Structures are given as structure tokens and as C-alpha cells.
Amino acid sequence: MRIQKAMLVFRKDWREVSRNWQVILPIVVIPFMFSVLLPVLLVLIPSLAATPGTSLGGFETMIQNLPKHVQDELAGMTDQQVMVYIMSLYFFAPFFLIIPLMASSVIASDSFAGEKERKTIEALLATPISDSELFLGKILVSFIPSMMVTVVSFIIYSTVVDLFSFAIFNGRLLLPNLVWILLIFGLAPTVALASIGLTVMISAKVKGFREAQQISVILLIPILALVFGQVTGAIIFGPVVVTALIGFFAIIDLAVFKIGVKLFKREEILSKLA
Amino acid sequence: MSSVETNGLTRRFGSLMAVDHLSFEVKEGEVFGLLGPNGAGKTTTVRMLACLISPSEGSARVGGYDIGRDSLKVRQIVGILTENPSLYERLTAYENMDFFAEAYGLSDVQEKRNRIRELLEFFELWKRRNDKVATFSKGMKQKLAIARALVHKPPILFLDEPTAGLDPESSKGIRDLMERLSQREKHTILLCTHHLEDAEKLCSRVMIINRGKSVIVGSPDELRDKIAGQPVLQVTLKKLNQKIIEAVKELKQVKEVDVDDSASRLIITLDDVKSATPEVVRSIVYAGGMVLSVNALRPSLEETYLKLVKEE
């Protein structure tokens, strides 16, 4: 395996991807929504506008179901502080898994299925770049930008949350904390890799970029389950849960990549084009 | 020495026999044409030889390397124009060339730049080098795809339908460029086409294939002789009369005479046109005929090809 050949494929694919608005738009807009727009609109502005003694409304169930160590963290906080604390640190956490999942899936669909659809794959496969070098290059172009978007979104989100928490918690900064660091640097990469592996499998079977992207949406189902789990208090993103999820997704990564590597063979790809 | 040598090369897709025990040889420096209708198996043959798909049966050597065992080496010494131009439309012409130059191992920056410039200038694309390929015409894309196939100076070139889908003017432009190219760079070229003009103008030998099987191999002239027989003699006169026609018919080398009164023309079928022509002309002149022109007419390769494919 020659790394410089994989990097050559990475650079070429990135040039292509970065000039495609169908790819760039969702990976810019959705992270902006999760890191700035929704936190500001749903949590921070209402909490600042609320008068002391404001009801916690629908969050009471979630708060009641929180584990004891989290309930202990909330001791002595006002309702306004509890709402900001729970929403910022727990409610939004699973949404940040949608960012790497969606970004990597959109880029991988363009890189794998898109190349097939645009009929550029044959000349690429005719070069003396090996299957594994091509595969690695295409994995990297899906993985690196999606992780960069996730990390940048996390930095922006932390800044936004801290700007407000500084005022609401009398100078206290809420982020980053251990759970979020594990989430962004441990869970997000495994989710991104699972998403890429699955998109490779889907891309081998479908004809085009859009089809691959549409089918990849099924990946959102387990992430949405985590969102609902958080809202109902059934799953709370603590260090143990996040570590367990990292292990779970790592196993999925291994399984989907094993199948993906098998499917990414010159012979397989071109037989389907014939 | 052979640049390409196939032995019983076969490829099946399920129950479909795309290439059926094809054996042929392309000599070094030769322009060899694979001629056949759509679906004849030309593209599948090229894909096997370029190590893109493996044969179901048989073997082949390209540049001395076995396509099964040494696929990476084969890909290094082969340049390929695929059925579709296979260009990255969001990249510029230069970026496309640059990527493929590096993919084929041109790591020296100056050498790479010089080669790209040389090819883009040759194909009249240098001024458009910084434009995205999406803005190019079909003919320009085809030129760029051929330039890309040549970027690493491959000794062996596979060109799959280089003039397909182009208007007559662009087709002629591509043909002229390829003719100049084959003279200048001395590649061994395997040219797949269903355009007879391409084969006739560019190829030293042609193999007609149909339904995956070889039908006939030879130079364009040999194919015409083998399939459509000897050429006929066409003599145009100032004025045609019965005396001249009788004088020609009396000659023992003459097998048949067709008369075209309106054009004062005789179409004469002979055993051997080359040796009998002086005798025919002399008999016409002795009979008082005034000869305007004498031509040995050969059936076109197109007529020959259509006859063969129809028979198959």
C-alpha cells in the first residue's frame, strides 16, 4: 500500500467534492443549525427571556429520570440554570452524532456512487493504483472533512454555550467536559466510519449518488433513537454510556468495512457497468 | 515482437458470451483495429487486456506481461481511452491531466508539467487548460481523454471508439490527430471502432469481430480482396458504341462487361485487373474509342464489412 497514492485520490476527490454544492450545502447548513441556530433559539434566548420561577415544562420527566449523579449536579440550581444545563449538555449531545453521520454519508455517496454515475470510474480503475489505495483514499475524503466539520461545530457550539453560561451561571463555563470530548473525539469518528462503510455497501448496489444518499438515511434511525432516549431519560449520555456506544459502533465499523472491502473490487464495479 | 497476444480469450456475463475464444496478435508499433458492430465484444476485450476485468477462460500477454499475474505492470505500460471520456467535469483540463500523470507515476514535477503542456498544445487545448471540463464540447472532451491516455508515454495504447458520438468534422479532426500521433510517438495501438473510416485510415491490420468471435483478420486491402473479390475496371469514354463493346467482350481475360450508356462508361470484370488493363485499353483504342479515364474500382471496406456482418 502506497500512502501517497491514497492521498492523491483523496486530493482529487476533495477538489471534486468541494466544488459540488449538492454536497457542500448540507455539510455546512446542518452543522450550523445544530451548533448555533437551534441552541440559541430553543435554549438560550428562552432561558434569558424567562423570569425566575419559570416552569421546566416538558423537561420535568427527563429530569426525574436522570441518574443520581446528574441529579446531584443539578442540586442548588435555579430552574433556569437546570434547563440550560440539561439542554446544553445532554439534550443536544446526540444531535452532534448526526453531523459526522450525515457529512460522511453525503461525501461517500458522491465519492463512490457519484463516480460510478458520472462514468469516471473506468479511467480511474485503469490506472496502476491498487484497489486498497483507491479504497483508502476514498475513505479518507469522506472521513477527514466530516470530522473537521464535527470538531469545528463542537468548538462553535461550546463557544455559544459558554457565552450564555458565563452570564447565567455567574462566570462558569459548561463546555468542554469529559462526556463531550468522548462524544466528539471517540464516538463521532466511529459513527462516521460506520456511515462510510454502509454507504460503500449501498453504493456498490445502486446506480447513482442520489439513490445512495437516500438509502443512507436509514442510518439516522439509531441516532434518532438515542435522541428520544435522551428526551425520555431512558439513555443519558454519561462517560459509561458513551464508551459503551464507542465499543458498539467499533464492532459495526469492523463488520461493514469487511463487507465494503469485499465489494470494492475492480471486477465487481466494472461488471455492473458492463 | 508482439505487443499484445491473446490466446482463446473468453468472457461470459452469466449466460451471455461477450467474448468467445478470441486469439490474435498485435505487433510492436502496429495500429491494429478491432472492428465490429455494437455488442460485438470490443469493449469487453479491451477491458480484459487493460486488466479491468478478468477473462473467464484463456490468457493474454500485454507488453510481455501476463494480464492475470502482472496486472499492475500491465496497467503501468498501457494508456487507455475508455468507452466514455471518463473525465472529472468539475476539475479543469490541467487538473485532470495532473491527477492522471501522478496516478501513472510521473513524480518529477518539471517532467510532468512539460509533458502535460506538450500534449495539451498538441491537442489544441492549452489555452483552455484552466477551464472546467464541464464547459468543453464533446470533441474537446474526447481530445482531452486521448491526451490523458498518453500522459505517461505508454508504449501500448488502447483506444475504444475514439470518434463515437462526434459530428463528422470533429471525427475527422480526431482521426487526423491520431494519424499524426501514431507517426510521431510510435505507439502500438489497439483501436476499437465501428467506424470504417477510422479503421481504413489508421489501421495497418484489422480484425472484424461479431458476437465475440473473430470473423477475419488482415490489412484493409486484404479484407476487401478476400471477401469481395478482385477490383473491377471502369473505363470512361468520350463516346461509346457497339463496336467498342464487342471488341472488349472478345478479349479472353474479360469475364463480364456492364455498360452505362448515359455516362459512356464500361464496367469490366477481369481475372486480373493489373495485368489485363493495358490489353483492354489497347482494344478500345483500336476500335476507335477515345478514353477519358481508367480506374480500378475496389469495393469499399464498408461494403466488405457489411457483407461479412450480414453473413454472420
What does this structure look like?
The complex is a heterodimer of chains A (274) and B (312). Chain A is 80% helix and 0% strand. With 274 residues, chain A is mostly helical. Chain A has one domain. In chain A, helix 2 (21-49) runs antiparallel to helix 6 and helix 8 runs antiparallel to helix 9 (178-205). Chain A is elongated, with a radius of gyration of 21 Å. The model of chain A has no long low-confidence stretch (mean pLDDT 86). Chain B has 312 residues and is an alpha/beta fold. Chain B is built from eleven helices and 14 strands. Chain B has helices spanning 42-49, 71-77, 93-103, 109-122, 138-150, 168-185, 196-202, 220-228, 242-249, 273-286, 301-311; strands at residues 2-13, 16-27, 31-35, 57-62, 65-66, 78-81, 156-160, 188-193, 205-210, 213-218, 232-237, 254-260, 265-270, 291-297. Chain B has a six-stranded mixed β-sheet, with helices on both faces. Chain B has a four-stranded antiparallel β-sheet with strand order 2-1-4-5, covered by helices on one side. In chain B, strand 7, helix 6 (168-185) and strand 8 form a beta-alpha-beta unit. The chains are: A mainly alpha (274), B alpha/beta (312). Chain A binds chain B through residues 5, 8, 12, 15-16, 19-20, 118-130, 266-267, 270-271, 274, and chain B through 13, 18, 43-44, 47, 50-54, 72-73, 75-76, 78, 80, 82-84, 86-91, 95, 99-100, 102-105, 145, 148.
Output the helix-strand order of chain A: HHHHHHHHHHHHH
Strand content of chain A: under 5%
The low-confidence runs of chain B, each spanning 5 or more residues with pLDDT under 50, are: none
Through-space gap between termini of chain A: 28 Å
Q: Return the string of H and E elements of chain B.
A: EEEHEEHEHHHEHEHEEHEHEEHEH
- The CATH architecture of the largest domain in chain B would be 3-Layer(aba) Sandwich
Strand content of chain B: 25-35%
For the largest sheet of chain B, list the strands in their spatial order: 6-7-8-3-9-10
The greatest interface between two protein chains, and residues involved on each side, is: A-B, 25 and 34 residues
Kindly state the percentage of residues in helix of chain B: 25-40%
The largest sheet of chain B, given as strand count, sense and whether it forms a barrel, is: 6 strands, mixed
Q: How many structurally independent domains of chain B?
A: 2
Helical segment tally of chain B?
11
Rounded average pLDDT of chain A: 86
Number of strands of chain B: 14
